[in-house]
Amino acid sequence: MTRIAIDVLRSARVRREEYVGPWFPEPLLSDPYQDPAAVRGVGDSVSMAALLLLEQLSPLERTVFVLREVFAFGFDEIATTVGRTEAACRQLLVRARRHMADGRPRFTADRREREELATRFFDALRDGDVGGLRELLAADVQFIGDGGGKAPQLAKAVAGAENVARCWARSSPG
After folding, report:
1. Which end of the chain is more exposed for a tag (fewer CB within 10 A), N or C?
2. 99-125: b or e for each residue (b if 16 or more CB lie within 10 Å)?
3. Measured between alpha carbons, how far is 129 from 172 in angstroms, rounded to an integer?
4. Backbone φ and ψ of 163, nearest 5°
5. Residue 128 CA: distances (Å) to CA of 8, 87, 88, 163, 168
6. Which residues have a Cβ under 8 Å from the Cβ of 83 and sit 6 or more positions away?
7. CB–CB of 169/129 below 8 Å?
8. φ/ψ (deg, to 5) at 158
9. Contacts of 77 by beta carbon, 8 Å cutoff, 6+ apart
10. Exposed, middle or buried: residue 65 (CB in 10 Å: 0-12, 13-18, 19+)?
11. In sequence order, which ranges of the chain are alpha helices (DSSP H)?
């Protein structure tokens, strides 16, 4: 029995099943809510909360807010993470709370402009246009891929607009 167990552990099947990438949450395969209205209500609540964070806070404010309010990090840890002083992080949190309480979006986006931007992005992605993708990505963009243990995944995150654009262009269907 011991020899069989050792052989199984050394087998190619076991080595193939080892997953080296970061683990991301698996999607729900079944709906835990039977009532469609309840599902819609939960989805709307989550969407609204995400929109508040995305539209009302700057990236730095959002980072400080989430680290402090959601994960309960100390200001010393947050300061180290974002590269600011503890006092600056406290001020960013105050500003983030104020922006959320005001209920105003940080900026307004015209529907036509949003659609045009999305069209440009998907056209560049489809055509494998590195330059077009690079123009549309933030300079500090990061791409993290997860195959869920069933498909190839990225060994490490791809960082920077140029690198992410090249990665996406290589994998484009066009």
Report:
1. N
2. bbeeeeeeeeeeeeeeeeeeeebeebb
3. 9
4. -65, -45
5. 43, 45, 41, 13, 7
6. none
7. yes
8. -100, 125
9. 67
10. buried
11. 2-10, 12-17, 36-56, 59-65, 75-82, 86-102, 111-127, 130-136, 161-170
Tally Cβ neighbours within 10 Å of residue 96: 23
Q: Extract the tokens encoding 153.
A: 């995944």
Residue 158 β-bridge partners: 143
CB of 45 within 8 A of CB of 80?
Answer: no
Sign of the torsion angle spanned by Cα atoms 50, 52, 53, 54: positive
Q: Are 61 and 95 in contact (CB under 8 A)?
A: yes
Residue written as token pair 């599902």: 39
DSSP conformation class of 57: S
Q: What are phi and psi of 24, to 5 degrees?
A: -105, 155
Q: The whole model's pTM is what?
A: 0.44
Mind listing the pLDDT tens digit for each residue in 67-116? 888 788 999 999 998 999 999 999 999 998 888 787 766 667 788 888 89
